[in-house]
Amino acid sequence: RFAQLTEEHVAYFRDVLGKDHALIDGVTSNAVEDDLEAFNADWTRKYRGHCKLVLKPGTTLEVSQILKYCNDNHLAVVPQGGNTGLVGGSVPVFDEIVMNMARMNQIRSFDDVSGILVADSGAILEVVDNWLAEKGYIFPLDLGAKGTCQIGGNVSTNAGGLRLLRYGSLHGSVLGLEAVLPDGTIVDDLSKLRKNNTGYDLKQLFIGAEGTIGVVTGVSIICPQRSPAVNVAFFGLDSYEKAQLAFKEAKGRLGEILSAFEMMDGISIDFVHKVTGNRKPLEADHPFYCLVETSGSNADHDGEKLEAFLEDVMGQEIVSDGVVAQDDTQIQTLWKWREGVPEVVGHWGGVYKYDVSIPLADLYTIVEDTKAKVQEAGLMGDTDEYPVVDVIGYGHMGDANVHLNVAVRRYDKRVEEVLEPWVYEWIEKREGSISAEHGLGLAKKKYIGYSRSPTMVGLMKHIKDHYDPNGIMNPYKYI
Ligand code: FAD
Ligand code: 2HG
Ligand code: ZN
User: Fold this and answer.
1) What region holds the FAD-binding PCMH-type domain (predicted)?
2) Ligand 3 center to residue 229 CA distance, Å?
């Protein structure tokens, strides 16, 4: 239903963008095949498109001109940020044009009293966060891909990350957006107001829309002050039940300074150890590990609180063993045991990823049941003949969000058939969500009905049709 790219189309885009480096043109030249690869392949190497044209606009006006032209000429477009998404949403399915936002990377304004930042959507999360650090502020989102992902990509996926527990969702911290609709309309809603009840809050539609209704070009966001004192503890536990008790104790004893509560099972930590060769933080092995971070204003006081918490949970035999980081380097090192898991889990060949929300009591049961399921099917073992290496669970326990990862030696239809839709049915029965924070993309498009009613899916389709009647924005995905 879309048009094929022609030399005439490319000439128009060249004219709009002006600069040669703002465009990778595989339509009129074959010499750029290798350059296109990075834009066609996703982070997991599971999804690959065949786009022949990458456009890198430098201004909102250019985005508007390009989208209007694409809409008028029925050319499909995939908006792309840092291409770190994990559901196959950021790469084309066929030969859609990729609109990469990397050139729009400027900070537009910052209010040093309110902490309100306005920046281009292509700004890299870590670059923005480092910039804010110099001013004593912090970006209210942090995740393992921070060095590559863009704030426009974060907003478009409604990324959750490692500190949602403390700073809440982007639905709360984003105050305004600038976006471009497929017909070229510039949605000019870059509000810098904390409170603004004048009509529908339309920016919320773009938060988590995964590029299906428009391109986000600017973000206004309220950033908290950076806590001068950050402390981290890492501990081992005998069971998931004990991890739940530790979480409850952490909320009770560390409440106002608690900024992260992450959980990893023993195999996740074994994986990081095997791949990196690094020495584990605790002497003995444990079935579960938790990482607790506090962010407050008084290093000694917060440190004492965290030590006292650890002594208490060890005294109650909730926690078997633990360590508190003594300096920034140790803090970074402990965080690597958590942030490193998604990096290493694909080491054996591939990984089936399920990013799910489930009420806390059942959060780890899905990992146990999935492991039993692949074992029963005779698909998991230590040698090459078995596709599955192991099944692991880790994630944002403080947000009741677990990452169920099935590490495989190769992608295998039999594994997929055993797991899908079984995993989604499992989640539906517990009234969980099949996508806690990564979105739907291509990976979960078919399964949206397990977490949303027909009425809700119908309303979403209305919205999509209203904003994008020709369906040019990120087609074949989402709904
Ligand atoms: P991309 O991957 O480029 O795009 C993601 C989606 O957003 C696509 O559908 C794309 O079309 C759309 N999009 C991108 N930019 C725009 C724009 N400007 N306008 C409109 N649509 C746009 N996610 C979490 O939620 N929490 C985590 O803790 C987390 N940790 C991760 C750790 C690692 C190591 C990796 C590789 C990924 C992790 N992710 C996590 C997933 C991913 O990093 C996030 O989804 C991130 O927000 C994607 O940003 P991006 O710029 O890379 O977007
Ligand atoms: C994380 O929390 C990310 O580390 C990635 O959301 C999870 O790769 C995954 O499954
Ligand atoms: Zn996550």
Assistant:
1) 47-226
2) 24
